[in-house]
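agent> step 3/5: call structure_predict on target 'F-box-like/WD repeat-containing protein TBL1XR1' (Rhynchospora pubera).
agent> reason: downstream docking stage needs a structural representation; sequence fetched in step 2, passing through unchanged.
tool.input:
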Amino acid sequence: MSKSNITSAELNFLVFRYLQESGFTHTAFSMGYEAGLNNSEIDGNLVPTGALITIVQKGLQYIEMEANLSDGETEEEDFSLLQPLELISNGVDELQEIIKKRKRDKMEGEKEKEKGKGKEGVGEQERHAGGEKERDKHERDRDHVRERDREREERDKEKEKQHLDFSDKARQSEDRSGSGKSQKKRRFFLGTDSAGVEPMDATQPPSEISNSEVTILEGHSSEVFACAWSPAGSLLASGSGDSTARIWTIPEGPCGVQMQAMSLHSHVLKHFKGRVNEKSKDVTTLDWNVEGTLLATGSYDGQARIWGRDGELKNTLIKHKGPIFSLKWNKKGDLLLSGSVDKTAIVWDTKTWECRQQFEFHSAPALDVDWRNNNTFATCSTDHMIYVCKVGETRPIKAFYGHQGEVNAIKWDPTGNLLASCSDDGTAKIWSLKQDKFVYDFKDHIKEIYTIRWSPTGMGTSNPNQQLILASASFDSTIKLWDIDQGRLLHSLAGHKQPVYSVAFSPNGEYLASGSLDQCLHIWSAKEGKILRTYRGGGGIFEVCWNKEGDKLAACFSNNTVCVMDFRK
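tool.output (status=ok):
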């Protein structure tokens, strides 16, 4: 019998996809980069979710069947199930010996049972009657088992119904469909861990946002990983695994059925020449300049591209040797900062579009960058380090060490005095240039923290009289709000069931939007820590963002869509 072969490149891609789907984000990127998967001809769109697991399961089944079938056996013979560990740790010959031994043991056991059945002088009728009784007994036993299984199933269904009823009351959410998958952000199911978390008040359920209130933007052919509103006008940018970004024009007026009926216009920003499915061109990050006139996109091919608001490609910035994970314009708009898997950060001059300076301080991939002011910025990496750098300086002006895991994100507060960081070590830390050690070390999360956001409140903002808050979103399915003045936990938001990958404060700082792999978008009261509104989409959510007015909210999903909805309290 001919056997299908799998190449090392195909196996590498399957492992790469498994790591993505299991939440080992940075490991997946490192492997993909080192294995050269960006040059692979494999079309990832044709590889289904969970492909590696499916192949392994089928392989185990094949080994089991091969071990159970020999030349002299027929289909009527017993099919002895083997344990997965036995299938993995033994060859076919050893498995056949295990099965033969179990069959011999079974036959001997049956012979022992036969010895106790009847006596030599029992007539045919009695034996027949005895056989009938034995069959009746077996039938009763089987009926009893079936009845017990039915009762167990009904109990499980009732428990599930009660759980769904509670979920409906607490979140007013719909049935889930689909599954989330992301090339930059991904994960396996992580159940909500309620340790130290006060339960939501189910007596005051949030208001559900129905599909009729939402405008769904369709056009991408793969997961949408990033979205961002233009600071000027009603333009929304989205970046996808289909090697394109799009700039959508969102008309004025309420979202929903009426807007959906319009022919919504979008500019398609192609990151490829020729083949549509070049996975090396996946759009990993995007950012508008402060005027909203230029959009910068970062790609898995290591190139940054600059686009006009009409979708015209202005420039391609080529110097990185690995995927770009983060792109940020400074407020002045004269410099663009990029961080890459190649371990470096580059400052680009936006007048000449040339590399102003390349910073090579990290010993591992750079995961995030953020400007402190127009010429000073911070970078973080999988090497556990954070560096604060200044344009023109050849060495970091500050190095922060304290995390025990990969540092996933960094953000300066509105004044530029405090730097927040979050890590795979499960902590969020607050740093100051005035000292080497962290100012605060927040340890209440029990799993990796993926992202953080400062509220647009306090000194240096348009909401100076409101309290400054830091939000942290974690793989433990919770969001935590921190009082920075007191260095304490304000609220633990436990409305999600799976990892939370994005949070965003409304422009007035009163509300927080969160998006999770559980397909739910929640809008919270930052003051009360309660869910006000909920929308359940058709896939995992990778990013959420508010428009500048704070009356519209966008979210991008794993089912290739972008959703826009209104928010009016």
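agent> step 4/5: record observation. The first strand starts at residue 207 and ends at 208.
agent> proceeding.
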